[in-house]
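Lecture notes, unit on protein representations.

Consider one protein chain, 504 amino acids long.
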Amino acid sequence: MEIIFALLALIIGAILGFFIKKLVTQQNISSAEKKAHTILEEAKDKQKQLLIESKEQAIKVIDEAKADEKVRRQQMLEMQGHLQKRETLFDTKILEFETKQQKLYEQLENIEKAKEDVKKIREDQIAKLEKIAALTQDEAKTVLINNTELRMHDELLARMRKLELQTNDELEKRSRTILSTVMQRIASNHTAESTTLMVPLTNDEMKGRIIGKEGRNIKAIEQLTGVEIIVDDTPESIMISGFNPIRRHLAKRVLEQLMIDGRIHPARIEEVVIQAKKDLLTDITKAGEEAAYEAGVVGLDPKLIQILGRLKYRTSYGQNQLRHALEVCHISTLLAQELKADVMVCRKGGLLHDIGKALDHEIQGGHPEIGYDLMKKFGLPEEIAYMAIAHHEDSPKTLEGVIVKIADAISGARPGARRDTYENYVKRLEDLEAVANSFPGVDKTYAIQAGREIRVFINPESMDEYSMKTLARDIASKIEQELKYPGEIKVTVIREKRIVEYAR
């Protein structure tokens, strides 16, 4: 019986639990539907709000566009009115010009008629005089001259002698005055070129860093710049020695930059040398532009100005060629003004007369011919290009050529302008390099140690080590046969091959 009651209680509990669970489930479903309905209503409200804001924004953009269009339309109308006014003014000017032109034509016609009338009156008067004198005009001139010559023969001879003597004296005085005036007005400073440069150091420890381990740094600098670096006991300074001033200044720039940078090793040296070469090219271009500005010469081709700037590092008998060119330019200009010659031809011709010296180491031939061809190449007139040749001719063909030749002589002959020993020294070094460069396979050549040593760099692909010995011996033999020099010259042949790769 108890079992039956227990079963009945269990069944009733199960039925009650089922209905209770069903009721709870229905309540949960109803609550979820209410939430979903609420979210849906909120989304609809938000959508309506966004649509309203979008419409308001669109209306605002349209209003701004209309306002901008109105402003632009107003500006176009104003511009159109301005153009119409200018067009009307232009038409008025054209009418005035045509009226003036017509008046000028009428005046010219009246002048021509007056000329014809004057000519006719003159012919009539001459005809009347010839009829009265029974002589033509030419016959009357001949008779008058013959009678005067017979009557004044002795007096004319004496007068001619006196005038001739006075003219010669006056010309001589005048020429002296011109030359003294020009020389007095041109007083330019002159700095004698040297074959060495002193580079100040921050401290003596820097000498060791420049030399580097086993001399690697100093060798790299000497090889890349072509100069000799002398490190001695002079405190806080080193010396750069070399015949080529461009290479000396290049080496000085490299050393100064390395000391500022602080990193001194072969790879960094190569980078600094490349940058220094670019800076030096910029300096050369600037020197050419400043020289053209100082001379008052305009319209030159930029490449020709750059070639002119190279004369800053070129010397002749110790005289800086760029300063010499400016001196000749100024002296030629002053002489041309005094002698009533073409000032512009003398100005440009004087500045560019030695332009061939900037390239005479690179192009075969003398600097007058090189300079003439160079100026013709850059479109300068014949009378200006001729100055390159005229200043070396015995008898120049033009007055301007004579003036430039005189100015060149004045600039070179003034006290302290030139030193013959320096030029001979540079010529000897150039001859040394030319002898080595004449052999096939030679890439670069540098004469160093004041001409006591020549370093020859060869192409490693075209020559082996055995051929290097033969080349060194052949160069030494040719130097002995063709050149004159004191003491002995050391010939060093260098063959170096570099292979560079980058790990990325």
